[in-house]
């Protein structure tokens, strides 16, 4: 007569080892990696956006029996619109599923990257992480003298007095700059309100210091209340949920269309062909964004 499984603890232990964490009685904390610049860089090289991360977030928050959701953030910022939309989606899912959100900053969570980090109920970082840069920046180039030297005539036709403002091939107009700065102030005020709402009384410091666009390393960020504590994902989760905690990484799904066209995720080109000059411009802009923080 075959022996009962309950009489063979060694067999049961081996079976449990093959089961998913939640079925084996182990705590589960799914991990979502939110890495890279935020918003469109070029049409063929999109950055992080709500569209690119929403399915990962929804999957993480839908894992049955999860104790929390962990977000690993490494971003120098980018689009304020996409940053805020990702923040809002994280908070909507957290409230809907009644799950705490634990954020872990890697190299940098600055500007829009920090806006997303504020979606965490708790935020952790490394002592050498860069955090903050609560401000708005915009830039362009001026080529009007260059095109004169090479004998190029600029021809621009518009309907609307301000349709051509900040054109890089025309001389800078102070009125255009004033209008741009007014818009930046509105976006900055929205960013500040989001940080205050999220961090609340944990913030330590005057507005004139916290919200100038300056950024800080990990320990100073803790003292200012921008993050809650120093710590890495594995150490914090094991200390909180035990050594047996399961931390499945929720990966983005490969696109059917991109696969059919021979495009690898993040390749920035179709059929393996270079997309110059888009790739060059994209690389320069992305490099400049990271370089602001010495990275």
Describe the structure.
This protein has 295 residues and is an alpha/beta fold. Helices cover 40% and strands 13% of the residues. It is built from 11 helices and 9 strands. The strands form 2 sheets. Strands 1, 4, 5, 6, 7, 8 and 9 form a 7-stranded mixed beta sheet that branches. Strands 2-3 form a two-stranded antiparallel ribbon. α2 (50-62) packs parallel to α3 (80-97). The longest helix has 26 residues, at 174-199. 27% of the residues are buried.
Label this structure with key terms.
295 residues, alpha/beta, 7-stranded mixed β-sheet, two-stranded antiparallel ribbon, 11 helices, 9 strands, 40% helix, elongated, disordered N terminus
Given as residue ranges, the uncertain stretches (5+ residues, pLDDT < 50) are 1-6, 11-19, 255-274
Number of helices: 11
How many angstroms does the end-to-end distance come to?
A: 67 Å
Strand content: 5-15%
**Percent helix range:** 25-40%
Shape by Cα distribution: elongated
| Average pLDDT level | 79
Rg estimate, integer Å? 24 Å
Largest sheet: 7 strands, mixed
Could you spell the SSE succession in H and E letters?
HEEEHEHEHEEHHHEHEHHH
Structural class: alpha/beta
* Count of DSSP strands: 9
